[in-house]
Amino acid sequence: MLAYRSITDQNYPVEGHSGATPQIPALSIFPRSAARLNRKRKTEFDDTDLIERLKAGDEEALEAIFNRYSPKLYNVAQRILGEVADAEEVIQDVFWTAFRKAKSFRGSAQFSTWLYRLTINAALGKIRRSRKNKEIEYEEYLPKFQKDGHHSVRPVVDWSDTLDEKYAERELQQLLNDALDELKPVDKSAVVLSDMEGMSDKEIAVMLGLTVSAVKTRLHRARLFLRGKLAVHLGHSAA
Amino acid sequence: MTARKAAARILTKRTCKEITDLIFGYLNDTLSRSVKRDFQRHLRVCPDCVNFLNTYKKTVSTSQSLRPEEIPANVRDNILDFLRKRIRKSPLSS
Hints:
The complex is a heterodimer. Chain A is built from ten helices and two strands, in the order E-H-H-H-H-H-E-H-H-H-H-H. Chain A is mainly α. By secondary structure, chain B is an all-alpha fold. Chain B has a domain at 1-64.
């Protein structure tokens, strides 16, 4: 590992950095691209008829809604809670609440948004009540900088290509799942909604009762933490 | 001005810490034109930040590729059973 050398040092760039001009990575890889959002919108269902039947207490309508939404809602609950039994309890409560309170659904928000909110509130509430909400310090896995704002550990290693080579897909998924489980519940919820459900920062803000700015800050910090965890697993510095 | 001095000037204008803070906005394409230009200029002369950005992007793409947790059949059956029983016990229409 090379010690940091001030950029005003006459010898900058330091050894290992004097090669070809670095390639700037392509711009957007994020899921909230227009194409992905369009795909998402197209798969959304028209729930109007089912909601009306649900409001009238139709058991079959509830089952139809369950079949439609439970896979996604279960994934969110299970990711946030980490336990099958907890996720089961939350999903059970969500659909029972949806049945009982369908009449209060005014249609001002999409029905699916309402269900997601019920799920996230129930999951986060369950964590609060169970006191499993351990306070995790991210600092150890966040990038470190010198006083002048430049990377403190150099060179920063690009392990992006070696990750897939070193780990089989299942191992990699487990590795990231374990790292996700170390995130604070709200941060984990934001990552799940963004990366797995393809929601926009604005949608996530509504779901989590945060400002859009707070969502961005939390997502960025969570990703820096996850990146640090992966780096350390690969034998590199999180910094 | 020598290339080295020019690089040092760019790296002083926006530090690696600032560039790291801007990654989220850069990848979502929400940076202003001038900030984006600074960001890209920094990357042209800073391999560390290029490598950092590549690994950040890899982290996000790995997270996006996580397979959804599937609802086990017995869990699905348990929930539906619960809902049916609750509805019969206290139907809304009564």
